[in-house]
Sequence to fold (238 residues):
Amino acid sequence: MGDAALKAELFEQLARVGKALGSGKRLELLDLLGQGPRSVADLAATAGLGLTTTSMHLRALREAGLVATAREGTTIRYRLAADDVAALFAQLRVVAATHLADVGRARSRYLGVVDGEDTEEVGREELLRRIRAGEAIVLDVRPAPEYVAGHIPGAISIPLDELPGRLSELPADVEVVAYCRGAYCVLAHDAVRLLNACGRRAVRLAEGMLEWRLAEHPVATLPQEVQPPGRFAVSMVE
Fold:
């Protein structure tokens, strides 16, 4: 038989990860970092937190080995420690939604799903087929820094808050497939509603950038100092 004290120590070490995940705000920070490296100030602004609170949450995630840091000049950027952290976060959502009915109800309320009526969606493989066939354009409606950090090749970047004033940049005779951070992100839902209300044919990617990365599909990036183009990117999905 093993030593009971050593066994207890082992499970306490495992529990460090569970404890770090035991905060909704820390999960939100992981969700944001799943889009690419971010500074503390950027994470704080996007998550609606103070700098001190954000730093505290990031410290807890780092102590659990879930995030790492890299210095770029005078800026320290946080990132997920490895792809398996993104996979863990994605699986946590699946388990929670499968075993907790409250998760599904909360998700529906947040995404604006009324009486089961949601915006139309397509899967990743169908999106790739439509791109190759020239049947659709891809619209990234996340904030610009997230597009710079990584996006679907060939996607045009128009953040959701800029979309009403930039509709003319989207061809009126081609279907738009909008995407955002992931299956629990509202941005693509709101973009499709806006486009449909303006008479544009639009659907959304069923998931988002997090799942796209985990599926090991191609990802395009831009230098941090480069702003996303207000036109179609040159590269396309192969």
Residues 229-238 have pLDDT under 50 and may be disordered. The radius of gyration is 19 Å. The CA atoms of residues 158 and 165 lie 10 Å apart.
